[in-house]
Prior knowledge:
The protein is mainly alpha-helical. The protein is 69% helix and 2% strand.
Amino acid sequence: MSSVQTSIVNPDSEDATNDAIGLGQPAQSIQHKNYKGFVAGIFSGIAKLSVGHPFDTIKVRLQTSEKVQFKGPLDCVLQTIRHEGVQGLYKGATPPLVGWMFMDSIMLGSLTFYRRILKDNIFSNPSILTVARASSRKVDNANQKVEDRLPTVGHGIAGIMAGATVSFIAAPVEHIKARLQVQYAADKSKRLYSGPIDCIKKIAQAHGIRGVYHGLSATLLFRSFFFFWWGSYDLFTRYFSEHTNLSTPSINFWAGGLSAQVFWLTSYPSDVVKQRIMTDPLGGALRDGERRFPRWKDAMMGIWRRDGPRGFWRGFVPCFLRAFPANAVALVAFEGVMRALPE
């Protein structure tokens, strides 16, 4: 989860909605806020990448390697550093560093948009609202009482829709990142791809835009689990608001970190399948090997036949360990830069 996402206050309040679309504020003030948020988001992405990317590299390698290659996460770390140096842990870091700036903006913007659409057009229906009334209650957020008219299930549905929207940027970013992360050769001349640009060029020349977007359907499925991320984020926010005296930033911090853990607990098997697809040889003119998984089902069955149920959880430990600290550091960086920048 990006720091921009975890620092969201309740988007259903009138003040939050006005902030999101710029109502009731001078144009100059809006421009200043946009400028600060963009710059803070860049620093947030750098902080998250610095802390989280080594964990992600180990996760991807464990997910896609043969069982005999690494004994476990620690062995994977040690082998990577021994053969490739510390920089080996940061292979494939450029695509997400650049991509997250766009992905965070689209994710946050579309999430807010879909929440408003659902609240105004779906959950405003009295019959539907009655069914969801159990999760609609007063929430103390941003130090004021507001009527949260969008139930938890609405937040989850908005998460699915926002996840699908951002997938069209996330899919090629994650695809290129994954292919760079599984290049084990320490000698750069022995690698198929010299970097992200070279990777994109070679795949596009051999397989066109469809090659660059290889794994899009798996990405869409994986990000459908944003239902649990944003649904649980709402539940944790409600709980901390009603049962603790935590400040709004602290609530955002804990709700964001815990909901990220819920997301990975529910989505991880689909992420393993996605990574297998994205690192599968494309074949053809690229000459990187023979394709093994032409369909999502083929990748899933391949994992099942090789490792059984445990295969869908390979690399889970570094992923789970990464989720909270990466988001925590990103949030600290985001809020710190926001406070430091002049109005």
